[in-house]
Structures are given as C-alpha cells and as structure tokens.
Design brief:
301 residues; alpha/beta; Arc Repressor Mutant, subunit A; D-Maltodextrin-Binding Protein, domain 2; 3 domains; five-stranded mixed sheet; DNA binding; transcription
Length: 301
C-alpha cells in the first residue's frame, strides 16, 4: 500500500465522516468503490480498520494507528510541496492558523487585513478552537501555526514570539478610573462590578485576588461571556475585570477605556505564537509569522 494512494484518500474521507456514504458524497465517487478498497486493504492486513455500526463507521485500534500516520503523511507531502515552492522563490501559498475565540473580534481581522496588504499572495486560513485544545491540534498537524493563550506545555513546540497583556478593569470613557494610569484592586472595590463567571478563566483569577486582598466586590451583575461583560460595561452597569486582549477593539475605537491592575499577585495574560518543532515552515508561513509578530506588537496594551 503506497502513501497517498487511492485507498488512503478513501480511508481518510471515511474516517473523517464516519460514513462511507458521506465520504462518497465528498469525493463524488460511488460508495461501493470506497468500500471495495477498504475491504481489500483489511483483507491484506488481516485486521479490520473500521467497526461497521448502525450509526456509521468507527475506527478500530488498528484504524486509529493508520489514521494518525496517514494524517502525518499528508502533512509531510504538503511540506515537500512547500519546500519545492520555496526553491522557486514563490511568495505565495496558504497558511493554516489555529487561534482561540478571544482573538476573533479584533486581532484576527486586523491580521488578515495586514497580510493582504503586505503579502497579497498569502492566504490565511483561520481555524478557531477552544484554547485548551490548540497545542494538541497543532501537534496533530491540523495547523501550521497556532496562537495560544497562556500555553501550559511547550515541550514539543517552538515558541516563535510571545507577548503579555495586562489584566485590569474596563469601563466607560467617562468613568473616574480613566483618570489613573493604573489602579490597585482596593481602589476599585467600591465601584459596581460585572463579575466573570466560569468557564471564563478570569473568574478564578478574580476570586483569588479578592480573597487574598480580603475584599468583597460590589456585584452589579455576573456573566460567563466576555462579550456580555463588555455590553454591560458599555451600558453603564459597572466596571468589568478583563484582559486588555479582550477589549482592545473597543479601546482602539474609543468606545471603552482600560485601566491596568497593578500589584504583586496580578498575573499578565500571555499570547504565544507557536509551531510544531518538527515541521518545516514554508516561505509563506515565515511571511505570516512576521505579520503576526507585527500585530502582536501593535496590540500590546
């Protein structure tokens, strides 16, 4: 069985869709042809690759192993093609960027605009994921680059660039806090606050800070969504504890103001640009790295 054979294309499509019929629709071929190739390969391996269930096709243990290697083979072929393009000196190509939802409102749109202006031949494919799964997705070959918030494990990654963003309070431009360049938590305790709730990571950070300072915030509202907190602040309900990264679009537009919180126990938010250390980065990916690094500098609070 040769890598990138017809069977491999069929196998990946079935594994992706958990269905021969859906794979056939994607590939625009007969399902019987796909099934025939899979059965033939299972016969050669003397081991099933899929469980045939009423709900569809599910990979067996052997199928999972083949699926992992097949995806890596596909990425390796893409790397080869990119290196050949690099030898030609071509300044075009596609770059798959994984990113958390927190960057979707301001950072990523600005990034795409910047890249289209500086490198019109580079197409940026954006894949928004839960931040906790970004490292795994990057290492499994689902992206060329990833922007990760507070990465916990970077052993298998190369961190190309990282910036820190302060935590603080977001408020309306006419709020008294705006007169200060930075504030301590005790100075804000008397103002009505919109409190972040789980699953927002800032919820546990704020709870720890108030407990350490032995402060009881004046709760005006609670919300488990950053956009909801921003909307409540804009409506004048209270001030909100967020990171600059969460509100940089509104601050840049002058809709809201951000006042950093200072103190020994105030952790900044880290944004890291990373790649799989085993992957070759194409010329287009290097160009995207430069553009992302520029944007990270521009958006640092």
């Amino acid at each position: 069985m040769q890598p990138f054979s017809r069977f491999l294309i069929y196998f990946l499509a079935v594994a992706r869709n958990a269905s021969i019929r859906k794979a056939a629709d994607d590939l625009r071929i007969a399902g019987s042809a796909i099934n025939r190739h899979i059965l033939l390969t299972e016969q050669q391996l003397q081991m099933p690759l899929f469980e045939r269930l009423p709900s569809g096709m599910r990979l067996t243990a052997a199928g999972e192993i083949l699926y992992a290697y097949a995806r890596r083979w596909v990425k390796d072929l893409e790397d080869i093609n990119r290196q050949v393009e690099d030898l030609k000196g071509i300044r075009r190509g596609q770059v798959d960027l994984l990113a958390p939802e927190a960057l979707a409102r301001a950072f990523l749109p600005d990034l795409v605009t910047h890249i289209k202006g500086s490198h019109p031949g580079v197409v940026l494919n954006l894949n928004i994921r839960d931040n906790h799964g970004l490292c795994e997705a990057l290492l499994s070959g689902e992206g060329d680059l990833a922007l990760i918030l507070d990465p916990e494990e970077t052993r298998d990654l190369t961190v190309i660039r990282q910036n820190t963003f302060p935590l603080g309070f977001v408020c309306r431009p006419d709020h008294p806090l705006v007169q200060q360049s930075a504030v301590r938590l005790a100075e804000c305790a008397g103002y009505p606050m919109i409190i972040a709730e789980q699953p927002l990571a800032l919820a546990s950070v704020f709870a720890r800070l108030t407990a350490t300072a032995n402060l009881t915030p004046a709760v005006a509202a609670r919300a488990n969504n950053v956009q909801m907190i921003i909307s409540l602040v804009r409506a004048g309900i209270g001030i909100g504890f967020l990171s600059y990264l969460d509100v940089m679009s509104e601050v840049t537009d002058g809709q809201l103001a951000f006042v950093p919180l200072v103190g020994a126990d105030i952790p900044p938010l880290t944004l890291a640009l990373a790649c799989d250390r085993t992957r070759h980065l194409s010329r287009a990916t290097h160009l995207a790295c430069d553009a992302i690094a520029d944007m990270m500098t521009l958006h640092t609070g």
